[in-house]
Amino acid sequence: MKSIIINAPGNASVGLVQDKQLQKGEVKIKLYYVGICGSDLSTYMGKNPMVKYPRIPGHEISGEIVETGEGVSKEYVGRQVTCTPYTNCGQCYSCKTGRTNACKYNETLGVQRDGAMTEFHNVPFSKLLFADGLSRKKLALVEPLSVGFHAVARGEVIDNDVVMVLGCGMIGAGAIIRSVLRGAKVIAVDIDERKLKIAKSIGATHTINAMDSDFENQILRLTNGFGPSVTIEAAGNIKTYQTAIAQVAFTGRVVFIGYAGKEIAFPTHLFVQKELDMRGSRNATRLDFEAVINYLKDNDDSEKLITKVITPDQFSSEINSWSENPGSVMKILVEF
Questions:
Q1: What are the TM regions of this chain, as residue ranges (predicted)?
Q2: Which of 52, 72, 84, 158 is 20–30 Å from 125 (CA)?
Q3: 76 in helix, strand or coil?
């Protein structure tokens, strides 16, 4: 079957791989669309230390069950699904305390193990989420949006919060949407005016270009001089990490999603003087996925988050273009 393969940094192609036999408890999915994630871009650029090459990318799945393995009823054939693309060992501390999304030994599709950018892919039934009624394209948006939804849960956002989201790509979009759904006022920050325009359209109360000379003064004006009560870092670079801590209000909450890729120096007195709650946010829970599905069912215009749809044969040129201009893309879907 046809598959996209990242052979080495800067080298992607379409090849043929063998269709795997179904194991007990698995289903075979015919892929409609698979989203290209920032982690796939990092793999292509050689910046993902968790990847070994060659690697089939892809974990943002939209598909249909076409076959069931032993122990799974055939009545599920024909149902459209997405899935949680993470593994969990069940034995580490995270798993034993119910936070399986942060399993110490997690292996995400397309990262530590081959992903779903193939014509067919086998998935454990336990990892499926049924989403009848969603369009095929919306199905591929569930996983990336769920990561932002989870960050909002980690930040314990409520209706009297002012949330500043740093980075308005797909992950940041999820954080904006979920914060708005919880009744919070949202300040969206990015350096790309196109992304700020989208952030406004999905509910951000205010948008600020981080390159503005009066950036800090704008934040203070919008927060009555206090700073936001919650900052969510969704860009993964040194400046956004530092800004999240510098601009958050005293006793505020800071949530980090992105990997900065380098060690970062902080003025540590802010940790103590502000008595900050600083939290990492990794992947998403099943509840986050279900919340995104409910949101997408009620929002007909959510497909505006999709930058473009491509064929597998276009993957190499498109991801190369994205690597040269990483701020230009919200979401690219590969149609199989």
A1: none
A2: 52
A3: helix
Q: What is the CA radius of gyration of the chain?
A: 20
Q: Which domain holds residue 77?
A: 2-141+306-335
Mean pLDDT of 296-306: 88
Residue 181, pLDDT > 80, answer yes
With respect to residue 323, please indicate whether it lies within any of the assigned structural domains: yes
CA nearest to 210, candidates 223, 195, 225: 195
pLDDT, tens digit (0-9, with 9 covering 90-100), for 211-250? 999 999 999 999 999 999 999 999 999 999 999 999 999 9
Residue 230 per-residue DSSP state: E
User: Whole-structure pTM over 0.85, yes or no?
Assistant: yes
Decide if 290 is inside a domain. Answer: no
Which pLDDT band holds residue 182 (cuts at 50, 70, 90)? very high
What is the enclosing helix (H) or strand (E) of 150? Answer: helix 142-154
The Cα 276–Cα 283 span in angstroms is: 23
Whether 294 is covered by a domain: the verdict is no
**Residue 288 belongs to some domain of the structure:** no
Within 8 A by CB and 6+ apart from 78, the residues are: 64, 65, 66
Question: Of 242, 248, 184, 240, nearest to 219 (Cα)?
Answer: 248
* Beta partners for residue 291, in sequence order: none
Looking at residue 146, its amino acid is: S
The whole-angstrom distance between residue 232's C-alpha and the CA centroid of its chain comes to 13
